[in-house]
Amino acid sequence: MDGSGDAAGSARGGDPAPGGFAWDTAGGPQGSDSFVTVAVALVANLLIAVAKTGAAALTRSASMTAEAAHSWADAGNEVFLIIANRRAARPPDRAHPLGHGREAYVWSLFAAVGLFVAGGAFSITHGVGELRDPTPAEDFIIGYVVLAVSFVLEGISFLQSARQARADARLLQRDLIEHVLATSDPTLRAVFAEDAAALIGLVLAAAGLAAHQITGSPVPDAVGSILVGVLLVVVAVVLINRNRRFLVGQEADERVRAAVLRSLQDMPELARVTYLRLEVVGPRMISVVGRVDLAGDGAESDVAVRLRRLEARISESPAVVGALFSLSTPEEPTLVG
């Protein structure tokens, strides 16, 4: 499904937020889950990057060199993601009435570009260079040990991101991959995708190193470097595209929109809803714009007060950073939930 994912989240157990809405706001820009996920990935990638760099120098393996570049790129990306979380969490101000949530997509976009250049492009270029001027590898055991340890550390980071993604996906009744692609939390998507790519890349590097040892030819090792680079380029392009879509403006998931519409229609002060737009303005943050027909008749001043009261009520939800309602005209069709 093409949607914002969990911009507003889904109903959890317990009491709904004021206005009848039950939003899932855990793990948003100020949520602890996203920070823990990024922090675990940063520590893991720093340890792995140092180990791979040492192994690459000792083994002179093209695949190991590509993996070292991959891990350094991932570590740098985690710094961007931490900045994204912190800047997106700043509250609304006069210049930014809808908050700073979209900064998460800006810094996550920088991280994805970094993965493309420092990880993917470097690995492909290095692999092609090795094909032209091969360098025999040595000390294969060191390479295997470092790859095995790296697999364990990357696995720990991946399990943390998968745990968070699986919990959120369950709330929205999605499968894991669908949720990772659709979620409005770019840090979760980036860490999950990078860790998954890292695990696959380690397998490719190990295969290239083993083929080099068995055949005595550096070619499989160089091909392994190129394959790692291609993998990183694909992941980076997917992440760049997802961040681009949220930056230019994307509506909330249809399931979230349907839940909000039902909540509005259940309000006794509203006769009908004729227009509703929920736009993602940050990780698990939305703005709400709608046109409604108020129940009963009232003076113009009373109508204005009732509309402002409705906006205030909706804005009490932690996931809503702005609500704006106007009156429907008689000829506008009623939305069906």
Features of this protein?
337 residues, mainly alpha, Alpha-lytic protease prodomain-like, Alpha-Beta Plaits, 2 domains, three-stranded mixed beta sheet, 3 strands, 9% strand
Describe this structure in words.
There is one protein chain. This protein is mainly alpha-helical and 337 residues long. It folds into two domains: 32-248, Alpha-lytic protease prodomain-like (Up-down Bundle), CATH 1.20.1510; 254-327, Cation efflux protein, cytoplasmic domain (Alpha-Beta Plaits), CATH 3.30.70.1350. Helices cover 63% and strands 9% of the residues. It contains nine helices and three strands, in the order H-H-H-H-H-H-H-H-E-E-H-E. Strands 1-2-3 form a three-stranded mixed β-sheet. Helix 3 runs antiparallel to helix 7 (219-248). The chain is elongated. Mean pLDDT is 85; it is low at 7-30.
The coarse overall form would be: elongated
Unreliable parts: 7-30
Count of individual beta strands: 3
Widest sheet, order of strands: 1-2-3
Largest sheet properties:
3 strands, mixed
Gyration radius, to the nearest Å?
A: 24 Å
The CATH topology of the largest domain is given as: Alpha-lytic protease prodomain-like
Question: CATH architecture of the largest domain, please?
Answer: Up-down Bundle
- The number of distinct helices, counting runs of at least 4 residues, comes to 9
Count of individual domains: 2
Task: Quote the beta fraction.
Answer: 5-15%
Structural class estimated from helices and strands: mainly alpha
